[in-house]
Amino acid sequence: MLDAEESHRTKGLLRLTMACNERCPFCNVPMEDYPQRHTPEPELRAQIAAFAEGAERTLTISGGEPTLLRERLLWAVREARASGIELVELQTNAALIDEGYARDLKEAGLTSAFVSLLSSVASEHDTLAGLDGAFAPCLRGIDALLDAGVRVTLNPVFASLTQERVPDYVRFVAERLPRVRSISLSAVQPHGRAAKALSLLPDYAVLGAAVKEAQARAAELGIELLNPYCGLPLCVGWEQALDRSVEAIEARAAPSLAQAPGVDNRGDKRHGPQCGRCVLRARCGGAWHAYWDERGGSGIAPPREHFDPFSGEAPSAMEAVVDAPRLETQTLEDLARATQPTVWLRLGALAEGDGARLADSACTHLALALRPDDLRPGALAFEELQILDRSRRALPPQRHVRVCLGLRPAGLRAVHRAVFAASAVGVSQLLILSRDAQRWEPLLRALREELPALELARVEP
């Protein structure tokens, strides 16, 4: 049997129907939003062919609730396998699956099921399913799938109602469903019905602690916990489990930040002010927009901030540092080989074309020491930083190369002008390299009020 998410890669998704036998109050694709309840068979056939042609390894058949259409579901499974798709997964609440149905699915070629067992407490599961008595049929369906030889991954969706019960859920699975070895921990996302019931959103400050405890319990019991796209920011319990967090896995596999899939979550998530210095920034999509708006980002904080590259401070284990006098082919290869979430390039100087090369590299953080004259419009460094800034403006912040400038001191007026120029080309952090605190602190205080988005400080070189 394969592990639950053997490749952890994005899967093809086929929605068989939008109809459902449950009415989850958090559903992000509620059937009332879809005038066409069932996807026509010719459209399904075309989608399966397109998935197969695109070399999708796993196809997830979802809904709504796809088990409502038994014959069409069995046909879709057979069609997908006959088209060469290796792994076919069923996303289901399992309430309609009995022994015969499970055997038919297995014979059709189903390899796995992703089952929404929403809580280990029957009353809470029923509340989140929007259907009284839903808990027992769900368990029976899981048993039937397992008996038929279908691998099952559980998908609880933790809400404010259940946010403290993650460790209890893991223990329940080990005791009641010992054949299940994988749990994908989702959390309510503020879309669909939940957008009108935002009280369902969990508090990440509570949920993060519960997730960490659950991970320790799962490790003891031999259960794999996964953090899917609809899961949690990495700092909410997952900072030590990047290899089981889909966003982080796909970001690491990408050759550059600009090509990293997933971390932008199609614009549904964003980073907050506390995310800028996080060493995991480039591998995390952040939190849902409504979570920032409704919960104020509660529980979101960097597990560790990145080091200051001009202060003599040592980088953390999550940071790689490549030092180079100029950006050459070997430098780009060294950046690409780094495996840490944060990849620094401390560069001696910028050359023509470096802005575009950096935008398409594996560098997540650029450290560069300049003089104020280097930031005059028309100066080579200014122009290359401007090109780098323009290349990333269409990307979310987690896919930006974060630029940290060390500014060699000069006259107050020249430094004042250089700071504003740095802000205009997207510099994230500017450090004045001087031991003279008395001279620079008054200017820095004034500039912080004028440019609140730019991190300004003085460090002793």
Topology:
Layout: E1 12-15, H1 41-53, E2 58-62, H2 70-82, E3 87-92, H3 99-108, E4 112-115, H4 122-129, H5 135-147, E5 151-154, E6 157-158, H6 166-176, E7 182-184, E8 186-187, H7 204-221, E9 224-226, H8 246-253, E10 269-270, E11 287-288, H9 289-295, E12 319-324, H10 329-337, E13 342-347, H11 354-359, E14 365-370, H12 380-392, E15 402-407, H13 412-424, E16 429-433, H14 437-450, E17 455-459
Parallel strand pairs: 1-2, 2-3, 3-4, 4-5, 5-7, 6-8, 7-9, 12-13, 13-14, 14-15, 15-16, 16-17
Antiparallel strand pairs: 10-11
Helix pairs in contact: 1-2, 2-3, 3-5, 6-7
Features of this protein?
461 residues, alpha/beta, single chain, 7-stranded parallel sheet, 6-stranded parallel sheet, 17 strands, disordered N terminus, 2 domains, TIM Barrel
Quick one: overall form? elongated
Average pLDDT number: 92
| Strand proportion | 15-25%
Question: How far apart lie the N and C ends?
Answer: 56 Å
In spatial order, strands of the major sheet run: 1-2-3-4-5-7-9
Radius of gyration: 25 Å
CATH architectural category of the largest domain: Alpha-Beta Barrel
Number of helices: 14
Query: Using DSSP, what is the number of strands?
Result: 17
**CATH topology-level fold name of the largest domain:** TIM Barrel
Number of separate domains: 2
User: Largest sheet, described in full?
Assistant: 7 strands, parallel
CATH superfamily of the largest domain: Aldolase class I
Strand pairing plus helix content: what structural class?
alpha/beta
CATH class (first level) name of the largest domain: Alpha Beta
Which regions contain 5 or more consecutive residues with pLDDT less than 50? 1-9
Helix content: 25-40%
